[in-house]
Amino acid sequence: MKVQSLLSLLLQCLLHVHPTLSGEYLLSEKSALLSVKASITDDPFSALSTWNASTSHCNWTGITCHPSSRRVIALDLSNLLLSGTLSSDLAHLCFLSKLSISFNQFSGAIPAELSSLSALRVLDLSYNSFNGTFPSQLSLLKNLQVLDLYDNRMIGDLPLAVTQMPNLRHLNLGYNYFSGRITFQFGQWKFLEYFDVSNNNLEGPIPQEIGNLTNLRELYIGQHNEYEGGIPSEIGNLSELVRFEASYCNLSGEIPPEIRRLQKLETLFLPENALSGPLTVELGNLASLKSLDLSYNNFTGKIPASFAELKNLTGLQLFQNKLHGAIPEFIADVPELEALDLGENNFSGIIPQRLGRNGKLQFLDLSSNNLTGTLPSYMCFGNRLEILNTEENSLVGPIPDSLGRCESLSQIHMGRNFLNGSLPRDLFGLPNLTDVMLPNNRLAGKFPIFSRNYSQLRTLDISDNNIHGELPSRIWIQPPGFFSVSRNKFDGTIPTSLCNATFLDVLDLSHNHLTGTIPQCLIEMSGVLSVMNLGGNNLTGIIPNSFPFNYDLQILVLNGNQLEGELPKSLDRCNDLMVLDIGNNLIQDTFPCYLKNIDTLKVLILRSNQFRGSINCLDANTTWSKLQILDLASNHFVGKFPIRYFSSWKAMMATKKEMESNGGSDHIVASNYYYQISVNLTLKGQDLEFVKLLLTITSLDLSCNSFDGDIPKEIGEFKVLYALNLSHNAFTGQIPKALGNLRALESLDL
Question: What is the pTM of this model?
Fold first, then answer.
């Protein structure tokens, strides 16, 4: 019945060619278009308000009629955010040559009745939510030149019906849920110039027949497909190819040498595969090549000397491979080079000192290699450099002063090197600077003054250096802000102007020589912070009792100061607190029972203070199910340790596998950066810093108090306990046999 209906409709279209039927044709077309409107359920911009029976449909929005016959030849409703289904009555527009409804929210099936539109040249249904399988009847559209279904929800095997459309120039089936294989029939087109099947669920090998598409200019087959094997050598037959993209699709093997025949190729994009072998020298024969991306593969060897012939190259991305050797000097002489990414390889030697001399460099990533020597002074020669990343190398010498004048610079990452000297004087006056990451170097001198009343800066990390002097009185940090000056030699007091940086997410001033008290406004500001670390200084006075109600603060570290008084009871307002470290101070208080309702708590360190009394105050049913580290050592706690708490400490009883599967983490994500969680544990009198602690390790330290009674046998249920210290108490009785169950234990002190 459906076939008969389609044949009948096709016959009607053929009959309507007769000029005497033109009046009937107009009526039929208007009715069909009104049916299309009726199938639309939402028109947020009232784009179809002109579509009514009282006006000529040739004047309606999106309609183009033939100037003499007044028959509809084009329907373009793109970019109108229309919702609804596509009416099958479109099939009555028998002279329609273009149908475009892209960038809307149409759903449902593609009507098979569209197959009767024999004049159709362009069918663009991209960026909608069409679903179901592709109608095989559309193979009747023999004159179709453009078929675009990009970004829909189509399913089923990659449709063979499209291979029966001999005049296709542009075929885009990308970003759907098509499965199956690219079969040999997809190599039949004589005129195809654009072919996209990326972002589907395709498998199997790439057929050698792909090399028959000799007019092809753009080929996109990657992203989330899972092919078998590599790139067929027949790819070299595509002499007109300008752009080839096959990223993240499980390609293996080497790049075929036949690729040298693609003399018009401008873009070769093959990242995130399993390609291997040395970089083929034939790539250097691609005289038109502008962008080469082979990142996230397994390429080995050195950068071939033939790459010196790539005079049109603007981008070279070789990130995360296994390449080695020196960075060739000719890289600095590529005249059009704008982006160079050689990060996470094994390159050694010095950075070519002329790099950037072409005046066009915008992106430079040499991170995680074995590079030595100094930084080139020409990197921002053209004042176009935006992102600079040389972290995790062995670079020495100062940061070039020229970077302090690089107004285009937005991100600078140079951490974990051996850089010395002072920070460039004008660095923090750069108008576009957003991220400065310089940790773990040997930088010295004083912190340069913020020379502007406003900056774009979001992230500043100069931790683990030798910078001294007072903290800057003016700090301009944009949301979400990350500010770390940890492990330097800053002195003086904490400036109250820090409280004006109300968008800070992370504040780490730890391990400096800061003195004075903690500003009350800083504690009040903790309502927006995720991390506040003031540990390892010489701060005195009390901890202000002004913590606001918040669900942001996750880490609070005040360890290693000279703080006194009571622990502020307003801490119970920090509902998402994960790490609380108040150890090694002069706090005089009883056990903080008011923290019992903070069920996110993983680490509680109160060691080496003057806490006193018993700890018989917790509720066994609701107390600290995620607790992994409890350190109460070197205080004045007394009495029996209440074993009823143990049943609620579920994290301590988990297996290593269970802890990993429960989403344990050694960091938090703050300001789009990882903030590494580190905790100091004291084992046999030695303070040891554990950086990746919170993934699987637990610890219990009750030493140097006055706990008495039997050692609780329930401790034997703590399956991943790493360290147990009960020394210097008044425990009596036997050592419980259950301690033999602590298979992960590495430190035991009784």
Answer: 0.87
